[in-house]
Write a structure and sequence with these properties.
heterodimer; A: 155 residues; mainly alpha; B: 158 residues
């Protein structure tokens, strides 16, 4: 493999953390700095692979479970029971957006010479929710209002 | 993630991305307007968060898609590639709206904050583009390239 010097890999890793701090100071969500940095860095074999080989273990095995634990700590089941009505409205909005997404993706795919069934499958694929939504919802600092949505997302 | 994928994606993913982002946004916003009075005051007034929430729900993020599709083993299938390129395009549309959303969020505190926020955000983004990218390019250029790939190419050439 290519051998990048230890100094540069460490420096880029530190820069990622500093960018998160900078975007928090600026007033944006704190994922935006590292996100733009990931867009700007050239992807692929030379630098990207070396970075992945260095950082991947720590992020997936240590930091990702910690972020899930934080998401679970934010949930307050008692408050969710009290504010069930508000949560149901949010769940309705979420349901409407997901169903319309499936239907519109199906129609767009049938416009592009796919079968309708494949289009519906495409819409279902586009509806996958993951870590990004959880991070965003925590970042919005919704507190108790959004518990039902957070719960639905995690389920 | 390669940013140039957006321009090479072709016409089909573009159509799918635009329709599956704009139509759910519109319909969800219409539902929100219909039920605005019945949704509790507490949810409505709390930092206008339903707007941000709708934008989050209607967008599909590239990283999430890539992770789930590679877990399911669908990355190289036709539908998987189509979904990936569509979600890249949707992501880029969302990135264009990030400053707008942020300044909207800041304006709840005070209008002077918006200008400061936009200025400092522009400084941060230009620092990333003008300083970090040349630095990464310099790192790539200045490392010796005697890896396995070069060795393989040599063998193939011989």
């Amino acid at each position: 493999m290519l051998d990048f010097s230890e100094l540069h890999i460490t420096l880029i890793t530190i820069l990622v953390i500093l960018m998160a701090l900078a975007s928090d100071i600026v007033g944006a969500l704190d994922i935006i700095g590292p996100l733009f940095m990931g867009l700007v860095l050239p992807s692929g074999p030379p630098l990207g692979t070396a970075l992945i080989g260095r950082i991947d273990l720590v992020t997936t095995e240590l930091l990702l479970p910690i972020s899930f634990i934080i998401a679970g700590r934010e949930m307050d089941w008692a408050a969710a029971g009290q504010e069930l009505k508000h949560g149901l409205w949010v769940a309705l909005l979420m349901l409407v957006s997901n169903i319309t997404k499936v239907v519109s993706a199906a129609f767009a795919a049938s416009y592009c010479n796919f079968s309708f069934k494949k289009g519906a499958l495409l819409g279902l694929i586009m509806n996958f929710k993951g870590i990004m939504e959880i991070i965003l919802l925590i970042d919005y600092r919704l507190g108790r209002v959004c518990i039902a949505t957070l719960l639905l997302l995690i389920l | 993630m390669d940013a140039s994928l957006v321009w090479h994606a072709g016409k089909k993913p573009f159509i799918i991305a635009i329709t599956s982002l704009s139509i759910p946004m519109m319909i969800t916003f219409l539902t929100y307007l219909c039920f605005q009075n019945q949704i509790g005051y507490q949810v409505n007034s709390k930092h206008n968060f339903l707007l941000f929430l709708m934008a989050t729900f209607c967008n599909s993020f590239f990283f999430v898609q890539a992770e789930v599709l590679s877990d399911l083993g669908l990355l190289s299938s036709e539908l998987g590639r189509l979904a990936l390129s569509a979600s890249i395009i949707q992501d880029f549309i969302l990135y264009c709206f990030i400053p707008v959303f942020n300044s909207f969020n800041q304006s709840q505190i005070g209008n002077e904050n918006v200008i400061m926020h936009l200025l400092s955000f522009a400084i941060m983004v230009s620092f990333i583009i003008l300083v970090i990218r040349p630095y990464a390019m310099w790192v790539i250029r200045n490392t010796p390239s005697h890896g396995c790939v070069r060795y393989l190419i040599k063998i193939l050439n011989n």
